[in-house]
Amino acid sequence: MPSTDVLVIGAGPTGLVLALWLDAQGVAVRIVDKSKGPGETSRALAVHARTLELYRQLGLGDAVAQAGHRGAAFNMWVAGKRRARIPFGSFGGAITPYPFVLIYPQDHHERFLVERLAERGIAVERETELVGFEDRGTEVVARLRRPGGGEESCEARFLAGCDGARSTVRHLLGASFEGGTYDQLFYVADVDVANDTLGGEIHIAFEGPEFVLIMPYGQPGKLRVVGTVREARAGAAEPLSFDDVEHRSIHALGLEVERVNWFSTYRVHHRVTERFRHGNAFLLGDAAHVHSPAGGQGMNTGIGDAINLAWKLAAVLKNEAEDSLLDSFEAERPVFARKLVETTDRVFTFATARGSVAEFVRTHVAPGLARFAWGLRPVREAMFRLVSQTMLRYPESPLSVGKAGKVSGGDRLPFVRFDGRDNYGPLSDIRWQVHVYGTATRELQQWCSRRGIPLHEFPWREAFGEAGLARDAAYLLRPDTYVGLAEPGGRAEALESYLAGHGLRPKRV
């Protein structure tokens, strides 16, 4: 019987990233997918700053950023007039090395990740479908249907369901998927236009009860268009085409569509499964949560699931942690997923609400409020952090302990530029590490040396304090770059107590 450490079901971005991060940490992984190849249509487009930050761990952040198109500003239009323009770079540069929304079509993204896996000697096993599995406590035995119809069994310590909203893994587990479906019918189209006057920026336009979101591909004249279908057409029995949807918003922006390369209609769902961990099986990405496309959060959240779980699986498999560490995946990711569904639901409901009052608020009140709010730096930064997922933190996690300065356990480490570099450089090392902004005590230096945990000291400068870091404090960072322990006194015994209390035994490299 073939065996592996982790069997990944599904080769979308979530599954591919999980396989990459597991392999990078020395974990044997097998990834299968029932499709014949990567997707041919560009579903998700947005890659957010936090995803690119995490991609830096494998040297992928800059490569993906260069491959995509940087949407540096967001524009709001009403009745053919621009009512608000919100540039990202003027303030996001103090928050992240990637102060923009990256437009990178999912089909391109998947091929990129498949190629990175191939460079590591791992091939996605295509036309291979999970038909059943048994969790025996110490391992999972999965039945796979191979190309041609034959079946084989595969033994794995853990099984990861990354197989989308219609997840076979979730179905076999009998797991819930509570939520609902929005009333509106949406369309998505990839088009060529004769006169692309949008400047490579992101635009949303409202015309009466309809709206359209337009995003550039980074190639002149090529755009992604997402909008609502008129109620009169939404119930049509025959398949709709681009000619059947409202074009007023598109024409109001001065765009003339020359060719439709792809068109589809869809309903939007909002659902979250009850549990992400079921013994030795896990649910990630769309298999665990789906929500409205507001803010382009879906794919990025799945990738975050994968990186959160990967280091924990690796630690347990290498006997660097107890199996109970995996419960922290359940304590961290579902909480964020549910908050995300609630947030995007409110935004989505506002953007699609019908009726004269809703239309008036959306087209006359909201643009003015947006201009005013974005004139306030704290509001700009808060909104960028929310959309970019740099605000994501785990305050309720059992792994989150202490506070030093304004930084608490579970927080994303503040990003600080200085002397032509930044404090995120050491985070490319997927392992526990300690950061001290100022001077580390001799006791802490000796403890890190004895433990084999890298210590990174940054000579104090005011920029660190402005970012919320405390001078001479010790920040014990998890392998996924979040703060585990924030120790204001920099005491080595506090770090030792943290590791012992959580059953963590990081090994020397």
From TrEMBL:
Keywords: FAD, Flavoprotein, Monooxygenase, Oxidoreductase. GO terms for molecular function: monooxygenase activity. Residues 4-343 form the FAD-binding domain. It holds the Pfam family FAD_binding_3. Its cofactor is FAD. InterPro entries: FAD-bd, FAD/NAD-bd_sf, RIFMO-like. SUPFAM superfamilies: FAD/NAD(P)-binding domain. It comes from the Bacteria. This is FAD-dependent monooxygenase. It comes from Sabulicella glaciei. The lineage of its organism: Bacteria, Pseudomonadati, Pseudomonadota, Alphaproteobacteria, Acetobacterales.
